[in-house]
Write a structure and sequence with these properties.
The complex is a heterodimer.
Chain A (H helix, E strand, L loop, with lengths): L2 H10 L9 H30 L1 E3 L9 E2 L2 H8 L1 H34 L5 H13 L2 H15 L5 H26 L2 H9 L4 H30 L2 H7 L6 H11 L2 H33 L4
Antiparallel strand pairs in A: 1-2
Chain B lengths: L3 E10 L2 E11 L4 E5 L6 H9 L6 E6 L2 E2 L10 E4 L11 H11 L4 H14 L15 H13 L5 E5 L7 H18 L2 E6 L2 H7 L2 E6 L2 E6 L1 H6 L4 H6 L4 E8 L4 E3 L3 E4 L9 E6 L4 E3 L6 E10 L4 E7 L3 E7 L10 E6 L1 E6 L5 E4 L3 E3 L7
Parallel strand pairs in B: 3-8, 3-9, 6-7, 7-8
Antiparallel strand pairs in B: 1-2, 1-4, 4-5, 9-10, 11-12, 11-14, 12-13, 13-22, 14-20, 15-19, 16-17, 16-19, 17-18, 20-21
Helix pairs in contact in B: 2-3, 2-4, 3-4
The chains are: A mainly alpha, B alpha+beta.
């Protein structure tokens, strides 16, 4: 018997002999995926059930009565509607501001060598590298003096902190991934540096930048900790309002609000997916 | 049409000189190859001509006018890169039309020129396609079209075919040569592939470690390489070492004396170079005995490697008419040798007189 044959035999008779059985492996994969689906979709499903449940008492598997009454409760609440408005105001503003601040920096990180480049790049990580609550508190004391507490711009600035990471790291990688000769070819046929950036580099980078913007938007939209400290009690966004609802109202109210909270991200994801598919199709070429 | 002159170009990266004191004249309509091993500074030189690298010293003149102060977009040069040439977010037409649109040409004229350029490179049907729908060879053709459509004075190519497979590379080479003749554009072509340089170029500039070794036509470069580096780099060459001994009337190895006159000092080490096609097989007992080590069939000829104590391992090309077996002993004669010694350019000796230091005379 050859050495390889012996090794194969050994593997078969080992502790995990069944692993080499194709059928077992396939079954294992199916079970694993099914488990994963339950784990991810299960809570979502129960969320939807709760949101539309009129009456649901133990031990019934499904609600006894379906109704929309909790939706009217939620949407009839003035402060809830206010929080939705605030969230839809701050998150896009934060994303735009973050892009304006970070994208030029990301381009510089990707394209230029300058002293302290690595250190600066790492410094954008620093906001995420230790517990944020301490950072927020110290920022809040600063905001008191600057009269930014419970204001729109105060909340925008505090939410900006958690978007920096995405808006720097993803675009830096994207810009770095664009081959220089693509830019040089544009210069070569007569485009200025600025025109090259806007007509060649930026369009090619767009899919990556969209992903970064999406993550930044979600980070800002989801931010509760800093917003709670800086914004409350007057400037309450949706995630902060969630605390109030969960603590003070029956369970279905939280479920309804959860769905409302998920909607913008869902819409953005679907939009992004369409964009990205086209974008990567165009970019996905090599020689 | 235009000529290009590089005058004492020098570029340093850190302490290292990537290109040093490089002077070259490219005539109007000429196809000049910059040839050398990787890291020899050929691409740096090309990028300096294109304006992507600023030289530390020297000048670049196109039609007698210095372009040193012009950024790439204002130089009358067009470059084709090794890869990643086409902008992936534009169709072929938009890729080619990009430069024309920057020049604010009327739409009808742009359309006409793009069509013409695509026809020139043999891709008239590709106008609506996206770069990712084209093969590597087609992408490079579009890149050439994009460069030519602006009617530049100088066309620069940076190893444009090195990412293509061997067959396609040979075909693209021929196409480029034909195209270049047809358009008559002054062209600088960078390659590390000597075969590519020999087949394409009107003249070749061989570079090594940032320095120009020799610039000549492919014929001269192959027949009479001026320096040892070029002799080694271009084509196949056999080398063995000898010592110049004036009182012996030539070069001396362990057992042989080769009659030659050179400008070298007595006792100078001289490298003897012989092309495989300049090694002939001698009948009878004349010639230098050599034991066959390896026979390789290369299709239209055979490459025989034979070992002689003085010549060392020697490659010979034969037509395969004569049966040669490994282990067999051949008799070799030399038709033509090139001698490289310290302190002089190459010395060429045809039909050298070779005698044995110990016994009978050899051919």
């Amino acid at each position: 018997m050859s050495a390889v044959g012996g090794a194969i035999e050994e593997r078969r008779s080992g502790l995990f002999w069944f692993w080499s059985l194709e059928a077992f492996r396939r079954a294992f994969a199916v079970l694993f995926l099914a488990g994963l689906a339950v784990f991810i979709l299960g809570p979502l499903l129960s969320l939807i059930l709760w949101a539309f449940a009129g009456e649901w008492f133990y031990p019934a598997l499904l609600p006894q009565v379906f109704s929309l009454k909790w939706w009217t409760v939620v949407l009839g609440n003035r402060s809830v509607v206010e929080s939705i408005k605030y969230s839809l105001m701050t998150a896009p503003t934060v994303t735009a501001l973050s892009a304006v601040i970070c994208l030029p920096a990301a381009y510089a990180f990707a394209r230029f060598e300058f002293p302290g480049r690595r250190l600066l790049l790492l410094s954008f990580l620093s906001a995420n590298s230790f517990p944020k609550i301490g950072l927020y508190i110290s920022i809040a004391t600063l905001f008191y003096r600057l009269n930014l507490m419970t204001t729109f711009w105060g909340v925008v600035l505090i939410q900006l902190v958690s978007t920096l990471l995405f808006m720097i790291w993803i675009p830096t990688g994207t810009f770095r991934g664009i081959n220089r000769s693509l830019e040089e070819a544009a210069r070569d046929v007569g485009a200025s540096g600025l025109r090259t950036f806007f007509q060649i580099t930026l369009p090619i980078a767009m899919p990556g930048l969209l992903v970064a913007a999406l993550f930044a938007f979600l980070a800002a939209f989801d931010e509760a900790q800093g917003t709670l400290i800086v914004g409350s009690p007057n400037f309450i966004t949706m995630p902060v309002m969630m605390y109030t609802l969960v603590l003070n109202y029956p369970q279905p109210v939280g479920a309804v609000f959860s769905i409302l909270l998920t909607l913008p991200s869902l819409v953005l994801l679907l939009l992004a997916q369409r964009f990205l598919r086209q974008g990567y199709l165009a970019a996905g070429y090599t020689l | 049409m235009a000529d290009l002159r590089l005058a004492s170009l020098t570029k340093r990266f850190g302490a290292q000189a990537a290109v040093f004191d490089f002077t070259l004249e490219v005539r109007d309509g000429e196809l000049m190859c910059l040839l050398g091993p990787s890291g020899c500074g050929k691409t740096t030189t090309l990028r300096m001509i294109g304006g992507f690298i600023v030289p530390d010293a020297g000048d670049i003149l196109i039609d007698g006018r210095s372009v040193l102060r012009l950024p790439p977009e204002r130089r009358p040069t067009a470059m084709v890169f090794q890869r990643y040439n086409l902008w992936p977010h534009m169709t072929v037409t938009d890729n080619i039309a990009f430069g024309l649109r920057l020049r604010h040409l009327p739409t009808a004229e742009i359309e006409h020129k793009v069509e013409e350029a695509l026809a020139l490179v043999g891709l008239p049907q590709a106008s609506r396609k996206w770069p990712h729908q084209l093969s590597g060879g087609e992408q490079q053709r579009v890149a050439v079209a994009r460069a030519l459509v602006l009617e530049p004075k100088i066309l620069l190519l940076d190893e444009p075919f090195s990412n293509l497979d061997a067959r396609l590379r040979v075909r693209m080479r021929e196409e480029l040569k034909t195209l270049q003749r047809q358009v008559g554009i002054t062209t600088v072509f960078v390659t590390h592939d000597q075969e590519e340089a020999l087949t394409l170029a009107d003249r070749i500039a061989v570079m090594n470690k940032g320095i120009m070794e020799q610039v000549d036509t492919p014929d001269v470069l192959y027949r009479r390489p001026k320096k040892l580096f070029v002799a080694d780099f271009i084509g196949t060459m056999n080398f063995f070492s000898a010592r110049y001994q004036r009182d012996q009337g030539g070069l001396v190895t362990a057992n042989l004396r080769i009659a030659a006159r050179g400008p070298w000092a007595d006792g100078t080490a001289v490298t003897v170079a012989v092309r495989p096609e300049d090694v002939r097989l001698v009948d009878g007992d004349d010639g230098l005995p050599a034991r066959v080590r390896r026979v390789v069939n290369l299709g239209h000829y055979w490459e025989v490697t034979a070992e002689n104590p003085d010549l060392g391992s020697t490659k010979i090309f034969t037509d395969g008419q004569r049966q040669i077996a490994e282990g067999q002993t051949l008799r070799l004669g030399l038709r033509r040798v090139l001698l490289y010694g310290e302190g002089s350019d190459v010395v060429e000796v045809t039909a050298p007189q070779i005698t044995s230091l110990h016994s009978s005379v050899h051919g």
